[in-house]
């Protein structure tokens, strides 16, 4: 049996009552479906992208009014997807979903190739696959292979000579507005505006645009739907009822200057090329939320741009989304380090509130940097101090989220929010310093004790606005620092 990804029921989902079932893509419009239910988080993320891409391909809203009043029903979506069914066979003699137009020569690799956290051939030969894995799957069922194939093409990392990354580079950051009311509401909330595509617009319906001679494919040379169905890797699945291998050849499509609607971008400086953002680790600390969760209010050149789906969502919904999802592979070139899946608040803020939010992030950055500096008297440079920095950002995230909720009010009190937030980050910084440094005074070394007391005094001077940097901290929050003449001597208990 050949799986058809438009007609057949192949996508596992979790229902609002907790039960699971398989659905065909058009059934995503059933309001009782809660979320995809694949066995891996990266496949769930890719499934969201695929479903959004299918709606964008077959039934996109033309504009805001059309989005608000004409979202398709299950039956309407089925009818609009039907003309594309011949383009969505996973196997067979004709065009194959997300695979090279031509049959590829060469010996197949195992189906592990389709997973980013599988070891490459060179890694396996060197027996260096400690954080990645080899030989996990002798075969893959067709639905799992289809979802892994899509995820691999969408998130493809660098893979050796000629093996191209995705149009967003390896392991891009994906952000999705989530109204919190089920799968269909999430999909519809993130579908870009546009016009329906045609089957021949899909890249596997034509000869591959190869890149042996550094050829590139720009948005002007293709149709917008290719953002959701890009094919940087030349692949052909091998198998009958199950997938037993994958043939890969180099020099797939090399995408240039595309802007994917589900990914935030940045510029190094005004006027330069937009670059996709990538996760740095398994968490997304709020110091990085500007340009991802929050609009960048101060860069006229647009140095940090939220994903188009997040930016347009604030215009689509008068009510606030409950959250947004930020997810993706954290990569070290070809090597996966971690998979990020964060659920973050998505609040509708005005320009003044967004500027205030950036002030809060800058204030926390100043405090975190000084905490790290003052801890140098007891902690050597390296992972121990970095762990303290991570702890600071994690411990104060709830305080920042609370401040954002205050800023979302029309008549917010900026001074009160700043004072409360400064108090919270100050308490956390003092607590961390004292927990780490004060025990070091018990070793009986006067010189060490003096350094700890001085470092503690410096940190307090910053937090109370009694140093040059402390005054900058308070000024940045719109607060008046205390009179420096009233600076008391600060001591700590040994």
| Low-pLDDT runs | 123-132, 489-494
Given the structure, what is the number of helices?
Answer: 13
Major sheet: order of its strands? 2-1-3
Number of domains: 2
**What is the distance, rounded to the nearest whole angstrom, between the alpha carbons of the first and last residues?**
75 Å
Care to describe what's here?
This protein has 494 residues and is an alpha+beta fold. It folds into 2 domains: 11-276, no CATH class; 349-494, Orthogonal Bundle (Topoisomerase I, Chain A, domain 4), CATH 1.10.132. It is built from 13 helices and 12 strands. The chain has a 3-stranded antiparallel sheet with strand order 2-1-3. It has a 3-stranded antiparallel sheet with strand order 4-7-6. A hairpin with an 8-residue loop joins strand 8 and strand 9. Helix 1 packs across helix 6. It is elongated and about 85 Å long. The chain starts with 10 loop residues before the first strand and ends in an 18-residue tail after the last helix.
């Amino acid at each position: 049996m050949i799986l058809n990804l438009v007609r057949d029921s192949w996508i596992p989902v979790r229902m609002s009552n907790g039960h699971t079932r398989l659905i065909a893509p058009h059934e995503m419009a059933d309001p009782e479906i809660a979320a995809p239910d694949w066995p891996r988080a990266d496949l769930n993320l890719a499934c969201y992208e695929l479903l959004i891409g299918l709606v964008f391909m077959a039934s996109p809203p033309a504009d805001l009014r059309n989005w608000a009043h004409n979202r398709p029903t299950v039956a309407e979506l089925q009818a609009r997807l039907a003309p594309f069914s011949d383009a969505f066979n996973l196997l067979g003699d004709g065009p194959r979903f997300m695979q090279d137009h031509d049959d590829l020569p060469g010996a197949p690799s195992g189906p592990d190739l389709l997973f980013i956290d599988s070891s490459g051939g060179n890694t396996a030969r060197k027996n260096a696959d400690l954080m990645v894995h080899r030989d996990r799957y002798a075969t893959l069922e067709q639905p799992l292979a289809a979802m892994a194939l899509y995820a691999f093409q969408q998130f493809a990392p660098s893979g050796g000579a000629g093996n191209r990354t995705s149009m967003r580079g390896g392991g891009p950051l994906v952000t999705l507005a989530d109204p919190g009311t089920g799968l269909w509401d999430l999909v519809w909330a993130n579908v870009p505006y546009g016009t329906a595509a045609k089957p021949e617009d899909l890249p596997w319906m034509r000869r591959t645009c190869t890149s042996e001679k550094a050829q590139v494919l720009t948005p002007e040379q293709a149709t917008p739907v290719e953002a959701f169905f890009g094919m940087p890797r030349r692949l052909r699945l091998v198998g009958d009822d199950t997938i037993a291998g994958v043939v890969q050849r180099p020099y797939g499509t090399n995408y240039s200057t595309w802007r994917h609607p589900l990914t935030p971008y940045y510029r190094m400086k005004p006027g330069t090329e937009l670059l996709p953002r990538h996760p740095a680790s398994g968490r997304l600390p709020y110091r990085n939320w500007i340009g991802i969760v929050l609009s960048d209010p101060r860069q006229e050149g647009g140095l940090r741009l939220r994903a188009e789906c997040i930016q347009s969502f604030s215009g689509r919904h008068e009510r606030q989304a409950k959250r947004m999802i930020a997810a993706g592979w954290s990569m070290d070139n070809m090597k996966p380090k971690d998979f990020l899946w964060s659920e973050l608040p998505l609040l509708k803020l005005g320009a003044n509130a967004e500027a205030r939010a950036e002030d809060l992030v800058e204030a926390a950055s100043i405090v975190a940097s000084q905490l790290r500096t003052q801890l140098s008297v007891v902690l050597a440079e390296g992972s121990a101090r970095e762990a303290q920095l991570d702890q600071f950002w994690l411990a104060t995230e709830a305080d920042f989220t609370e401040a954002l909720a205050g800023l979302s009010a029309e008549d917010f009190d900026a001074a009160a929010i700043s004072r409360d937030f400064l108090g919270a980050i100050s308490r956390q910084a003092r607590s961390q310093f004292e927990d780490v440094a004060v025990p070091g005074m018990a070793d009986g070394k006067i010189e060490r004790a003096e350094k700890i007391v001085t470092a503690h005094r410096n940190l307090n001077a910053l937090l109370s606005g009694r140093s040059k940097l402390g005054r900058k901290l308070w000024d940045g929050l719109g607060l008046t620092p205390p009179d420096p003449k009233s600076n008391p001597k600060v001591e700590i208990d040994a």
